Amino acid sequence: xxxxxxxxxxxxxxxxxVVYGNRxxxxxxxxxxxxxxxxxxxxxxxxxxxxLGYWRKADLLKLHFAETWNELHHLLIMESLGGDRLWIDRxxxxxxxxAYYWVVVPLYMLFPSYAYYLxxxxxGHAYHTYDEYLKTYEAQLKAQPAPQVAINFYRxxxxxxFDEVQTALSHEFRRPKVDNLYDVFANIRDDEDEHVKTMVAxxxxxxxxxxxxxxxxxxxxxxxxxxxx
Length: 229
What we know:
Structural class: mainly alpha
Transmembrane segments: 98-119
Strand content: under 5%
Radius of gyration: 18 Å
Distance between the termini: 50 Å
CATH superfamily: Alternative oxidase
GO cellular component, one term: membrane
Number of domains: 1
Cofactor: Fe cation
Order of helices and strands: HHHHHHHHHHHH
Largest sheet: none
Main location: membrane
CATH topology: Ferritin
GO molecular function: alternative oxidase activity; metal ion binding
């Protein structure tokens, strides 16, 4: 199954490379439109299970919603940079996303660990894409201002949802710089790395029962500290 998933992702990456070439912002718009979809699929399945009384895990629901919120703001940033300017780019991204949703829903119902593995590969590709872009265009990006939507999301707005995707941290939340466009893309890249780590952790057999969101973990640490203090 993992071999098949790797082949599917490799084919998708090939198509994106062929269609978009060096059109970076439309390419990123495509990636971010699609990157949100599996989290929608996970949430749909989990809400169905909860409705039927089959399973309930509030922390996992909170995590996947926070991930959709994170990817939404990546998408808003790409839109602010003109990535969705052409009708054809919006058409392709939105229709691929619609089909992708219905691929992930049954996969997550039948094989949740493979659904998380699929997302690990997608997010891993996104991480490397942004990392390469930062290395190639560092000087140009540092000379451009950060979009306001990025400043609001990473610095000036309510950071609760941003914190909820930082599952790999153990002592404090990440507070990134947003001084220029380079910082924005570095933050997006680092977000993708957070998603990869989370997807890896959720593939463990016990993860769906034992997983706790970052705020839940920190609240427990604080409560224990109060008791011992």
